[in-house]
Amino acid sequence: MTATSRRSPTETVFRLLVGLTGLFFLALGIGFMAFPDILAAVFSVEPAYSLGVNGIRSDFGGLFLGMSFFCLLGATTGRCRWLTVPIIFLLLIIAGRLIGIGLDGPSPAAVKSLLVEVILLVLLAVSTVVLALRAGSNEKGLKVSELLNLKTLVGAAVVAAILGGLFLSQKKIGLALVERIAAKSMNADVIADLPDGLHVGLCGSGAPLADPRRANPCVAVIAGRSFYVVDIGPSSERKMELMRLNPGKVKAVLLTHFHSDHIGDLGELMLKRWTGGSNKSPLEVFGPAGVETVVEGFNLAYSLDTEYRILHHGPETVPPAGAGGLARPFHFPPGKNEAVIIDADGVRITAFEVDHAPVKPAVGYRFDYKGRSVVISGDTIPCQSLLHQARGADLLVQEALQPAMVGILQDLAQKIGRHNTARIMGDIMQYHTSPEDAAKMAKEAGVRHLLLIHIVPPLPASILKAAFLGDAGKFYHGPITIGEDGLLLSLPAGDKQILQRSLL
Ligand SMILES: [Zn+2]
Ligand SMILES: [Zn+2]
Q1: Distance CA 71, CA 85 (A)
Q2: Residue 356 Cα to ligand 1 middle (Å)
């Protein structure tokens, strides 16, 4: 008689159920490894930027693949011992779930997850017993004493005591943590700690279409000790603070044009620069003709708040003369489409015309500092003036929109009768640059590194990056980075390197 023929129907059913549980964990494990952002959204986990996605991919992916491995091993060998591992993990997961419910209260989603976990635990536990008792088994049941001996019980009691102690000391721990975290963030001076050179920080790498990972356009440029901000789109000021770039230190804002996605947080930056740095003169806002209207509007909108702040904190803390912004419009000399608008402390900033028709004027900026150079395209289609400025630059910070993806959104909007959205999707393809065209420009200009920002459409999952780049890699063989909020690219003076890290 073969082993298979000795199998009782009950054993077969339970081995099948364990196998299905293993396959369920396998699907989750593969899902977390391949699509961490998407699975995270399904499980209401919010990854904090690339590092968070990395953690979800490895920790969640590893956990579920491991549990799957032992379930499948149990199902295929019929040995109940293998099920001990997923059972222990499920017990710990359930313990964590109960602690979470105790701290935050029972949410329907948490209770539902708990229910699934308890069902799986019961299934594996019953399967363990069935397999242990099966005919011909040489495993005399799972020896409970192996697991629950004195050592493991003492260990479990210690862990429980630590968790209980932490639970009961929440208030004390919370206050101590506030002190530690606040001391760390208040003492942080990212700008002072940077080596001499040009540094580009992305406080906003997205565009008007909402992207959970990206605020609207805002590029922080730190040249030596001077902190400039190019565009200040909605939500970007908050990102600037999260990156610990002190808004009180901003020297000037440079606007590329006046689409709302490039100016929305100007009022917030004016306010935070004033209150955060006790500045005694308003924030200078450079831009082509029209910048006066924008600054005037924000000054007016924030004028009541300005009065309140002075009443709250007194004129010594918030000097009235430092509130708001001061428009610094510039014009190109006749017959020219470029002009040096700032030349101070070793930093030369050149504004140049770009093509964002029908938006006129629209400009980009080139920063030169101690032999290093960064060109920021602003919103534009590929054009000669941008190509000219980018020639030989270390870094081209280029806006990019992927027409193949936007085309899909356009078709979908058309199909479901959202004609307005469909029209806008069609229009925006006319006044932005594709990643492929950005790559061609980078190649022709001979730039050392291409950084794409103003990402359209949103890329909520890492797996979308390759489709977004399309054929860009065929046209430009240097490094291409898809911008993400928090990213800092450093170009040290007297060097050729471009270093990359995240400030979030
Ligand atoms: Zn624009
Ligand atoms: Zn834009």
Answers
A1: 8
A2: 7
